[in-house]
Amino acid sequence: MGVSDNLPGILLCYAGIVSLIFAFIHHWRKSKGYVILLVSSIIGFIVFAILHNVLEAMGVEIIGAVFFLIALFVCPPAFFIGLVGTLITGSRK
Q1: Distance CA 93, CA 88 (A)
Q2: pTM across the whole model
Q3: Helix (H) or strand (E) holding 26
Q4: Rama region for 59: left / alpha / beta (φ>0; ψ in -120 to 50; rest)
Q5: Residue 25 exposure: Cα atoms within 13 Å on the Cβ side
Q6: Mean pLDDT of 46-59
């Protein structure tokens, strides 16, 4: 059983992460916060992907899997929200 046959579950996971991010950022009105979210999601993706590879090579598979899931499920929705939020709040000026 792989993830290729569980598309609704993966989409539900992304929707949950987006809802969790929106719970913290719903009051932001300036683009500075969204830019910080955008940049930190890019940096976070790179850092967590590298940590995943390093820990997998060292044999610490459980923590490496956690970093993989963070890089895969948290950073892309945060990037998308940061990008859209930056574009929307930037167009208001």
Answers
A1: 10
A2: 0.84
A3: none
A4: left
A5: 23
A6: 94
